[in-house]
Backbone:
C-alpha cells in the first residue's frame, strides 16, 4: 500500500469512529422511555409556581424538525397517554401540541434531544418568556431551563439558573433533587 492509500484508510477509520461516538452520544441522551420522560417533565413542572397563575389547560408544545421527527412522535404519544389519565399540573389539565413558528399561547416548550435548530427556537421562547425543557443536557448551555436526560440509563434532571431566571419560580424541594448548573 502506498502512503496515500494508508492515509485514506486511516481517514475513513477515523470518520467511522467519530460517527460511532456521535451516535452513542445521541443514544445516551434519548435512552429514557418517552413515557418516563413525559411523567418526569410533568412532575418537574408541578414545582414551578408561575404555571399555577393561569386557569386554562397547561399548553405544552413539542418542537420538531427532520432530525427529531421520530422522537417527537414518541413523545407526543407519551404525553397524550399521560394526559388521558387525567393527570394535572398544579390543578391544570395538560394539552400537548406541535410547536409552530409563533409559539403564542404556549406555557412550556419541550425540545427533543435530537432537535437541531436550537438557537432560533430558544430565542423565540425567551422573547415570549416561555420555559424550555429539553431532552439534551447540552441545550442548557444554549438557554434551556431544565434538561431531563439520562446518565447510565437512569433519569437525570438538571436545572439551569440562567435558563430559568425570571421565567420559572421553582420550589426549593425540586432544586434539592436536581443538578444545578449556572
Residues:
Amino acid at each position: 500500500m502506498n502512503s496515500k492509500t494508508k492515509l485514506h484508510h486511516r481517514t475513513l477509520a477515523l470518520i467511522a469512529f467519530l460517527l460511532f461516538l456521535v451516535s452513542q452520544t445521541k443514544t445516551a441522551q434519548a435512552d429514557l422511555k418517552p413515557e418516563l420522560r413525559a411523567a418526569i417533565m410533568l412532575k418537574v413542572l408541578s414545582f414551578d409556581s408561575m404555571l399555577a397563575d393561569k386557569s386554562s389547560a397547561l399548553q405544552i408544545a413539542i418542537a420538531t424538525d427532520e432530525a427529531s421527527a421520530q422522537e417527537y412522535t414518541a413523545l407526543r404519544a407519551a404525553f397524550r397517554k399521560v394526559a388521558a389519565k387525567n393527570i394535572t399540573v398544579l390543578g391544570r389539565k395538560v394539552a400537548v401540541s406541535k410547536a409552530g413558528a409563533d409559539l403564542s399561547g404556549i406555557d412550556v416548550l419541550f425540545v427533543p434531544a435530537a432537535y437541531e435548530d436550537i438557537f432560533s427556537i430558544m430565542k423565540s421562547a425567551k422573547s415570549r418568556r416561555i420555559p424550555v425543557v429539553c431532552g439534551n443536557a447540552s441545550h442548557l448551555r444554549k438557554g434551556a431551563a431544565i434538561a431531563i436526560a439520562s446518565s447510565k440509563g437512569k433519569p437525570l434532571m438538571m436545572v439551569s439558573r440562567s435558563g430559568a431566571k425570571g421565567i420559572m419560580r421553582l420550589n426549593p424541594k425540586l432544586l434539592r433533587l436536581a443538578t444545578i448548573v449556572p
